[in-house]
Amino acid sequence: MNAIERKRYILDELQRNGSVVITDLAERIQVSSMTIRRDLNAMAEDGMVTLEHGGAVLNNGSLFECSISFKSEINAAEKKRIAAKCMEYINEGDSIFLDTGTTPNELAMLLRGKRNISVLTHSLLVANTAATMRNIKLIMCPGEFRENSMGFLGPLTDDFIQCFQIDTLFLSLEGIDLNDGISVVDVQDGHTKKVLVEKAKAGGLTRTVTLEPQVAAPVEAGQRLGELSVLDGDTVLLTVPLVAKEAVARRSWGQVFTQLLRMAVFAA
Length: 268
Description:
Radius of gyration: 19 Å
Largest sheet: 7 strands, parallel
Number of strands: 15
Shape: elongated
Strand content: 15-25%
Distance between the termini: 24 Å
């Protein structure tokens, strides 16, 4: 196993049992205890686990959030397929908004083949990716930088968004729950996403919702954006089959899809 595969295996064990023991993991994966200890130290730095004597415990509360660097390693192939599917909703001459997150950034990488596209974003990842693309017009939102989102948030961001008309919004979410609605971890991030959704509803936009699964694939997070009905209209959900399968086992996602979506697209 390489480092990413080991982290995924360790995470699976953490999700299944809540904690892991270094010597047990080393024996199962057939690596040294020092290697497992380094993996757990890296996961602790990302805020995923709390180290304890001889092992680690999963941090899995509603405010748990992986670092952007670790998010980029998880479901990488699936995110590329989601991004490719998103391209079907972008036409020449469109004005689009790309949210923060690693999946929207995958979409940004594909825009080089498009022409005459205006891209509005508050994501530093997206801005860096699109900065050298001469075929698009890049508009960067101001605001207060948040490292875990790798984006700019807050009142300046929200006010700036109101100045533009957008054809398609690509929104990244962290939690969808049948009873509690949609949610994200950070309060400021949640408010900016709420502004985007309200702007979309007011402008009658085509809205594409990209559910970007965190490594723990949560269906709940810290900041509520509202009931599922806030995403009515031409909403498309793009997610990965594995995450959807896990979610169905936990919650009645068949009902969620019926209530939330006009169309659900799985990037398989």
